[in-house]
Design goal:
Four copies of one chain form a homotetramer. The first copy, chain A, folds into two domains: 66 residues, Orthogonal Bundle (Arc Repressor Mutant, subunit A); 42 residues. Chain A contains five helices and two strands. Chain A has a two-stranded antiparallel sheet. The longest helix of chain A is centred in the C-terminal third of the chain and has 25 residues. Chain A is elongated. Chains A and B meet through helix 4 and helix 5 of A and helix 4 and helix 5 of B. Chain A binds a DNA duplex through helix 3.
Chain lengths: 126, 126, 126, 126
DNA sequence: GTGGTCTAGACCACC
DNA sequence: GTGGTCTAGACCACA
């Protein structure tokens, strides 16, 4: 999973997500120095300003911190990272279940569909 | 669930979703006549132009049809409605599982989390 | 007090401060519509992007909200505005007293100096 | 109070402030010899170049003087030190009162808030 | 070389 | 006309 930007959502939002995942997955480990803004921008083939915007957002989340003229660093607070992961998961879970219920599915159906999707990678093939 | 419009996504897109759900859930049954565009717009507290745009999209999906000078009707093709429901569900399922995997969850974890979420309405409370 | 930007701090930060004060002082009353980003930028003689950055910050503070394609509005939550005022005051107070103590002043001296400053607009003239 | 550097302002400027305070508070008494630049840098956990820049600034203020090949000394002019203290205090006072007025506080309120802050260390708790 | 800031100008979807 | 986003390019202070 690396820097694949789609056109449906704001680029900077996708960058936040991608970098957040890289931190969660230890591709950017706690306390490590991030590549420079310019380098990250080059990797993602994006304008440095756009990358900067994404990084600022991650900074307000507390996931990274910035040391002037030195670089940006992943937080050393592993609990905070774990928390971030949970927060995202809870958000996804809630939104998913709500939408499925809105579509008229019963809880048992939802469970079964999830099982199928996970096993087959392709639901509704019963 | 009724006409709750948020500010984060295009209004017309949310209308498409809401009306689609009402059709799926038989609040607007097959072959029934829809309220006038003007009335629907009033219900949703939305500009009639915006409602019109949403209805056009539902029409291209085949879920509703226009009879000139008479009004708009929900399709009588129940299979098509069922199909629409499945299409949406598959899309949600796929997106959900993909995102959870991106976050680093294993398939078994995902199943368990879904179970918890459905039962408690509140995951991560083991 | 109107849009006087100095060169010592980031422009956008000064804009946040100025607009925040205008809200506190009811120059931009609760629930009122703000001028468009472009207009505000013109008033402050600043690039629209810079103004946008300031407004986004005020939005994350909750002081203003944005309605897509319609405009930006001051919050109607007067308590939140009052709270914002207090938060700023407490911050200023704390920083001030701490600095004065760091300089070696006793509490009584600080009080007297504040009195003098307020009355004369000019301390150390005893 | 000792060598706590934050990331929001230039490091050298913070060093100027800290060392200035140490002189004002007689931690570095008049006419005394300062530790070597290298040692000061080590204490502050700062690059010697940065410390050097701070000391140069204090020298132009007249607070310290350089004796070639011997070291740097705090000025023996106690009036000058006292003046420096006053200059800083006046600056803080003026800035503080101006900001509080900008926030819409009346002079009497400001006095009361300062009293509260000094006594409780916690304003707005009436 | 680093992050931070700002400008200018453009395009977009939406209402 | 509205907010939102993005690019390109530039400058700055700092280390």
């Amino acid at each position: 999973m690396s820097w694949e930007i789609k056109g449906d959502r704001p680029v900077y939002a996708q960058l936040v997500e991608i970098i957040g995942q890289k931190i969660i997955k230890n591709e950017f480990p706690p306390d490590s120095k991030l590549p420079s803004v310019r380098d990250l921008a080059a990797m993602a083939e994006v304008n440095p300003n756009t990358m900067q915007k994404a990084l600022v957002e991650l900074e307000t989340e507390g996931l990274i911190s910035s040391v002037r003229t030195t670089g940006k660093y992943v937080t050393n607070d592993v609990d905070l990272i774990e928390n971030y992961k949970r927060k995202l998961a809870v958000k996804e879970l809630g939104a998913f279940v709500r939408k499925m219920k809105d579509l008229g599915f019963q809880v048992e159906e939802i469970k079964q569909l999830v099982d199928k999707e996970i096993n087959d990678g392709n639901s509704f093939r019963n």
